[in-house]
């Protein structure tokens, strides 16, 4: 944003969200990430097997546990 010289004011800050997360929510969060989405769209059989194994491991390790989770997000604002 700075390099573009399109803004007279730029600020970045971090905010966070707290919520409860079980195995399904964890898997859903992972699947929502851009890199994961790209891999899914490529539909490579050996990768699909690894994704399936990932889901099984998460479900096995977390079981019915619900964890308190905090995620941080970077927010950038620019004023022209």
Using brief descriptors, characterize the structure shown.
flat; 80 residues; alpha+beta
The poorly predicted ranges are: none
**Largest pleated sheet:** 2 strands, antiparallel
What does the average pLDDT come to? 92
Class per helix and strand makeup: alpha+beta
Note the beta-strand portion. Answer: 25-35%
Radius of gyration: 18 Å
Write the element-wise H/E pattern from the N-terminal end onward.
Answer: EHHHE
Question: How many DSSP helices?
Answer: 3
The count of DSSP E runs of length 2 or more, i.e. the number of strands, is 2
Strand order of the largest sheet: 1-2
How many domains? The number is 1
Multimeric state: single chain
Distance between the termini: 11 Å
Helix amount, in percent? Answer: 40-55%
Task: State the shape.
Answer: flat
Please describe what this structure looks like.
The chain is α+β, with helices and mostly antiparallel strands and 80 residues long. The protein has one domain (9-79). The protein has helices at residues 23-32, 34-42, 45-62, and strands at residues 9-21, 67-79. The chain has a two-stranded antiparallel sheet.
């Amino acid at each position: 944003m700075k390099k573009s010289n399109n803004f007279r004011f730029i600020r970045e800050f971090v905010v966070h969200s707290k919520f409860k997360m079980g195995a399904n929510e964890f898997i859903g969060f992972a699947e929502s990430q851009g890199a994961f989405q790209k891999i899914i769209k490529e539909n490579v059989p050996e990768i699909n097997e690894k994704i399936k194994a990932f889901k099984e491991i998460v479900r096995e390790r977390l079981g019915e546990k619900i964890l308190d989770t905090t995620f941080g997000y970077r927010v950038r604002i620019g004023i022209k």
